[in-house]
Amino acid sequence: MRRDTIIAVLALAVLLAVPYVLPSRAFADFAIRASAMALFATSLNLLVGYTGLVSFGHGMFYGLGAYAFALTMQRTSLPLPVGVLAALGITLAAAVVVGAICIRLRLIYFAFVTLAMQMLAYSIVIAWEPLTGGDQGLQGGIPRRVVAGLDLGSQWTLYGVSVTVAVLGLLAMRHLTQTPFGLSLRMLRDNEARAGFLGITVWRTKLIAFVVAAGFAGLGGVLSSLFVSGAYPELINWPESGQGIFAIMLGGIDSFLGPLVGTAILLGLNDVVTRYTEYYGLALGIIILIFALGLRRGVLDVAWPGLRPGRRAPAAARGVKAAEGVKP
User: Where does the sequence pass through the membrane (predicted)?
Assistant: First the structure.
């Protein structure tokens, strides 16, 4: 944990120093979008890569965080930090309800029920036009107030806040995966029946993982809402969950930083492809297919296999066998 903290501090120092070396507004925009998406994709990998819960509807919490924050800031005079907490509270409450319904389902049933929940949320956003703005989204922008002397109306200030929140959020998720709770998640992923026999309450552990992942996704949605100064139906629609899945596939499902690398690749491809062709979906689909078939486990898993969390599995397996009185 100390090593991870040092790496995070160094990475944050480099990111905060970049504007002094490369004062590019295009880079600042990219970094803000990547910060929001990285939180979302990494939180999704807490479910997919660490717990074995493949959610096709995780984007619902990303969009819900964005809408809850934008509505709070538009319709109240609450300070911005309170607005962030309110948005996260709403997202977590929704995750408890949705998770209580979904986590007892297995495999493909879980995946498609989460997708159905996201489609329901999207339909509500479109239909509830007086509150959400319907298919036009929230109009009029949101106030970017001064917080602790920082004017979030400035692009570079928003850049600094975004990368700081992203690094701290990723560090928190990294520490979570190294705790006994994180090891319990891997045990559920590898052998749910044995985890139950060893005393882990399966449904409760899954629900906590689901809610925690939703909270970090909601935080990513808040950053996205700050960037676009509002909220739009695309943020809560089902393709947003697909973006998270693609980011995990591109970067590597077995590496903690895989979703971050996949996010950078996905957003970079998006920016490049849209410059040269209007058939963005077709071109990007072909590129992702090449990545998926050529690398299988993702860029980071191939380039740096030592980062795979599964490399600690043999020691854990030996510990379980020893507890059972079986010679490793």
Answer: 6-22, 34-58, 78-100, 107-128, 156-177, 207-232, 244-267, 279-299
Between CA 39 and CA 122 the distance in angstroms is 21
Cut 0.85: pTM above it? yes
pLDDT score of 304 = 63
Q: Residue 276 domain-assigned?
A: no
Q: In the chain, how many domains are there?
A: 1
**Residue 246 or residue 87, greater confidence:** 87
Task: Tell me what percent of the residues of the chain surpass a pLDDT of 90.
Answer: 58
Structure tokens at 295: 């690398």
The pLDDT tens digits of the residues spanning 191-234 come to 888 998 888 999 999 999 999 999 999 999 999 999 999 899 99
Sign of the torsion angle spanned by Cα atoms 109, 211, 228, 16: negative
pLDDT above 50 for 323: no
pLDDT of residue 153: 84
Asked if residue 326 belongs to a domain, the reply is no
**Contact of 59 with 237, CB cutoff 8 Å:** yes
Euclidean distance between CA atoms 184 and 316, whole angstroms: 11
Q: Which pairs count as long-range contacts for 66-69, CB under 8 Å and 24+ apart, including other chains?
A: 66/221, 66/222, 66/224, 66/225, 66/231, 66/235, 66/236, 67/125, 67/132, 67/138, 67/221, 67/225, 67/231, 67/235, 67/236, 68/218, 69/142, 69/221, 69/222, 69/225, 69/226, 69/231
Whether 243 is covered by a domain: the verdict is: no
pLDDT of residue 305: 58
Closest CA to 262 of 66, 57, 49: 49
Query: Do residues 51 and 107 make contact, with C-beta atoms less than 8 angstroms apart?
Result: no
CA distance 268 to 287: 12
Range of 56's domain? 2-237
Q: Which residue has the higher pLDDT, 286 or 295?
A: 286
Instruction: Classify residue 191: in a domain, yes or no.
Output: yes
**H or E element, residue 8:** helix 2-21
